[in-house]
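Box 3.1. Reading complex inputs
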Amino acid sequence: MSDHQHIVSSFDHDLETIQAHIMKMGGMVERAISDAARSLETRDDDLAEEVRGRDKAIDALEEQINEEAARVLALRSPAARDLRVVLTVIKISASLERIGDYAKNMAKRTSVLSQMAAVNGSPSALRRMAREVEEMLKDVLDAYIQRDMDLAHEVIRRDLDVDQMYNAIFREFLTFMMEDPRNITPCMHLHFIAKNTERMGDLVTSIAEQVIYLVSGSFPDDPRPKSDTTSVDPDLAPKGSH
Amino acid sequence: MFDAPKFAETKVTNNDIKIAARKVQVYYGDTHAIKDVDVDILDKTVTAFIGPSGCGKSTFLRCINRMNDTIDICRVMGDILIDGEDIYDKKVDPVQLRAKVGMVFQKPNPFPKSIYDNVAYGPRIHGLARTKADLDEIVEKSLRRAALWNEAKDRLDQPGTGLSGGQQQRLCIARAVATSPEVLLMDEPCSALDPIATAQVEELIDELRQEFSVVIVTHSMQQAARVSQKTAFFHLGHLVEFGDTGQIFTNPKDERTESYITGRIG
């Protein structure tokens, strides 16, 4: 943030309030990811149910942030960095809301999976992936509040690891499904969870891009690195199907 | 190729330099009011000068039609060229220059004459009309350009001072454009007007830029953002930053510009 205060101090107050709400929302989403992943690994139905119930509060906070942003635009006519603060809170809250939805979906599938036989090893791999995304989210929120571009760039790079974890999990599920057709139903659910977690990483990356825009006034030049190859690599398709 | 619509502010196709200032210094006695200002102002473009009170923006504006000549203690150094010609050259007649470089002031200041005579004054003294019919035509055209014709056409013989504030300001704009100037300088033209009259003047400014190079000094940053394509930020006599209006208001390069436009103590 700029070192100087606004002459109109209530303007500072409004901008601080709206950013405090982003941080609060970020904290709730972090907790949703972590609890959803834990409920998946420990087959904890009650915790999964709780995660699903808490999503409403995240959605409500997004709506509140958007209303506050509209008020600041209408009443304060922000310019330059102040304008970028308002534009980025709108986009970041939308990304956080999507991440919250994916966490809720993970919890929903957890409730379904807990009715089925467990698939060995996979939930802990998924939890590691979720933990990495959660860490990235925590760091990107720190980067946001500290206006730290270097940390934002680092978060973008770490999305590569998440993509690679997803590739590995994808291969593993293919193997399980080929070994035993009874694995297909749980593996399909688990695969959706993995894919959604990978998407969470992408959304965290887009928050990092907003941080870079907020600080520098322009978006990063280099297209974000991609290493989810499952959609382009035919070798990953099940054998005999091509 | 698809020709994408553009924002009004970015629709600057003209790159002809109308006014070129080089190393301009202005002193009021010992006070150094303008320091080393270099700027190129484009033709058929609205350029806004913004900055805190006393930053020199009005002083610089008044250099462009030599209004500062009327102040004894004021000295102007450096070069100001319009179409490549030095306006401070000894051969230049300031009265002729001011016909070419019109000016509109903060407070509407119509002459205590009829609406018609207010507009006809400039063309008369500069001998721009040979017949009464010529003059009638200039008056009508100028009032139309200033979007005042419909309101004034039935009361042309009534005093200009009887108009409302917004109408008076448009009358002053009509008076300024009546001599067919090439540059129009406006020193806070809307600060005494209500929002409706302000919007009318702003709409007018946008139309005037089809024909003139318009330079406007304003304290309203929203107004600068709305009407101009180029913005210059002055601070303590320096031209701190000059660029496309969109860039100045979304991503200024200089910390001082940022502090000023975001309403911080700079």
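In summary: Helices of chain A lie at 9-42, 45-76, 80-113, 122-146, 149-179, 184-216.
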